[in-house]
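Could someone model pyridoxal-5'-phosphate with this protein?
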Amino acid sequence: MPTPPLDPARFDLDPSRLWVMHCAEGPVPKPAAEALLEFLFRETRPWTVRWVEDFRGLPERVRRETGRLLGGSPADVTLTSTTTGGLALVAQGFPWRDGDEVLTPLGEFPANAWPWLALAPRGVRLREVPLWGGHAAGADAWRSTPPPVDADPESRLLDAVTPQTRLMAVSWVRFQDGLRLDLERLAAGCRERGVPLVVDGIQGAGTLPLSLDDLPGVVAFATGGHKGLLAPQGLGVLWTEEGFRHELAPPGGWLSVEDARDFDRPSTDLERDFSPDGERLEMGVPNLLGCAALGESLAMLNDAGPETIARHVQGLQTELLDRLEESGARWLGDGEGERLRGLLEQDRLGSILSFHHRGSGLQAMNRALKSGQERGIYASVREGYLRIALHGWHHRGDLGRLVAWLRES
Ligand SMILES: Cc1ncc(COP(=O)(O)O)c(C=O)c1O
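Reply:
Sure, complex below.
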C-alpha cells in the first residue's frame, strides 16, 4: 500500500474513527498542536517570549509558508481571522461607485456573499449566476440538479459580465457540490474584461496546487486556516496582488505602518505611511498562537507537496468510485457514478466527493450520516449532497470502511 503523503502518525486520529470532513474542519496535526502549546507556555511566562523568533518569527513563517503553498510572494500575504475576514477587507476597502455590481456564482458559501451584500448602502449590488441548467440554491437548494460532466461555469460567469460588473468573486472549490472552477480560464477571461477576480480558496487550499504569481487576473485569494490547511480556527490568510492591494483603503492597523515595530521611534509619531506589504491590511497584533500552529501545518503540507497530495486524493477518489460501483452501492445509481467519474477525470473536483441525494431528501441523508457515525465515520451533508472529503493522510484502508458503510446506507 503506498504511503500517504502526510504521515498518519503525525495526527492524533483515533484509529476507530474515520474523519472525512476536513471540508468542515481539518484535524490539527500533533506537531502543530505542540508548537501552539509551546508558545502558549511562553506566554504564561512573558519574559520567555522572544522578540525575533516569536513576535516577528511566527507571523513571518506563516507568510513564508503561505507564499510557498500558494505560489505567491510572502510580502503579499495578510494575516486575517477567517475567509470572511479576508473577503471583507477587500469588500470594505475597494473604491466602489454607486451602481457597481459584484458577480458571484449562485449558491456560494455565505462567506462569499455577506461581505458583498453588506455593501448595499453604498449602492453596490450582488448578482448571482447559475452555473449550469437546473442549478438552484437558497430555499430551492435541495431541488437543484447537480453539476453535470459538461458544466462550463467559467463561460457562464464570463458571459454574465456587464458594464456594471466591477468585481467577480468565486469559490475555487464549491462547498456543497464540490465543483472546482478553472481559475486559469476564469482569470484570463476576467482580465480581458477588466474585472478583478477574487477567490474564496478555503476548500482548495492545502489539497490542490496553485501558483498565484502565474495567474494574472486573480487579485485576491482568501482562506481560513481550519480546513485543508489543518490549523485551529480563527486564523486565516489573504493574498493580494500588489497593485490591487494599493487600490484598497487599509483598515488602519497600528502595526501596519512604516517602522511600526521600532519602539525607539515614538509610536505617537503619526507622520508615516502604511506599509506597502500585505501587513498593510492587518489590524493590530497578530494571532501568534494561531501562527505557531498554522506555520507548522503549512510547512508539513509544503514538505509533502500540494501536487502530491492532490494526486493522492484523486487516486483514492477514483478507487472509491470503482469499489462503490463493484459493490452496487445506491449512491452511484441514476448516472451518479458516471457524473462523478466524469467530473473527476476532467479535473473538475477538489478533495470533496459530493454524492447528490437524487430525490431521497434531507431525512434520508441524515440517516445515512448517522449510520456512518455509528461506525465511527464522520462525513457531512450540505444542501443536498453527502460530502466525503479525503486528504493527504487518508489511505486505501479507509476506503474499505467507506465502502462497507455506503453500500449499506
Ligand atoms: C467555501 C467556503 N468559504 C468559507 C468558509 C468558512 O468561512 P470562514 O473562514 O469565514 O469561517 C467555508 C466553510 O466553513 C466554505 O466552505
